Amino acid sequence: MASKKKVIITCAVTGAIHTPSMSKHLPVTAEQIADQAIAAAKAGAAILHLHARDPQNGKPSQDPELFRPFLSKIREHTDAVINITTGGSPHMTVEERMRPVMTFKPELASLNMGSMNFGLFPMLERFKNFEHEWEREHLENSRDLIFKNTYKDIETILRRGTDNGTRFEFECYDISHLYNLAHFMDRGLVQSPPFIQSVFGILGGIGPNPEDLMHMRRTADRLFGDNYQWSILGAGRNQIPLATMGAAMGSNVRVGLEDSLWIGPGQLASSNGQQVSQIRTVIEALNLEVATPDEARATLQLKG
Ligand SMILES: C[C@H](N)CC(=O)CC(=O)O
Ligand SMILES: [Zn+2]
């Protein structure tokens, strides 16, 4: 793996997995998303991974007009790298999912590297009371949900994004997704070094055990040699433990309320910035340094 300068922290601010009734700290309105993103950048996040929500009921939305207000405020107050989702919500069509990236042509966008079951229903054990009916349906319907990312879908997003100078955060939820990435690299559709966001602990993908992390790392080393940038995303309670293990092994890290609502066992995080500060403390305790947005741009060779 390329000799890494510093640890790139990505903060995933709101996402499309958790719902407002689960935590009052989950940002929903454009103002809330912007303010939490700016605070996360100030706390040390070099990359901000962004989704939008309907301000009325918090429902995930890929409407570019819901992204526009917080994108301009974030750009006004930080030089963080903007990473816009193409995953949207697993309940959306690929066309719908691509709208904001095609509108705003960001430096970075997420790209999910395979179709999979996407089990959110276990959260119904933990969360019982919902203000909006869509929240319960969102979880319940995931029993019969396929997060669709066919080779045609992936190629379409890759080609269209690359035409706009956008590079990708390749979301790999399992070993097969690394092979899918290798396939598109072999076809010359992926610019080097690929930024691999390995996702652990989503039901339907690979588990959150340190053995799973090692297996993803060994496989990536075998497929990509030292020509890739690695990042670790642990879902839920696995967020900080896996990010810590990853950082100690030379990986970049991702935190944020999209991936986990927690700061400790049974303790809701009060903000995205709180999670960024927590992982920053770990990184600096490992005698590593946090990358600035421009250092992240250089490492990932972004258009800036
Ligand atoms: C597990 C994460 N929700 C992965 C993600 O962030 C997908 C996307 O936005 O494209
Ligand atoms: Zn996302």
UniProtKB/TrEMBL annotation:
<protein>
    <submittedName>
        <fullName>3-keto-5-aminohexanoate cleavage protein</fullName>
    </submittedName>
</protein>
<dbReference type="InterPro" id="IPR013785">
    <property type="entry name" value="Aldolase_TIM"/>
</dbReference>
<keyword id="KW-0479">Metal-binding</keyword>
<dbReference type="InterPro" id="IPR008567">
    <property type="entry name" value="BKACE"/>
</dbReference>
<dbReference type="GO" id="GO:0043720">
    <property type="term" value="F:3-keto-5-aminohexanoate cleavage activity"/>
</dbReference>
<dbReference type="GO" id="GO:0046872">
    <property type="term" value="F:metal ion binding"/>
</dbReference>
<keyword id="KW-0862">Zinc</keyword>
<dbReference type="Pfam" id="PF05853">
    <property type="entry name" value="BKACE"/>
</dbReference>
<keyword id="KW-0808">Transferase</keyword>
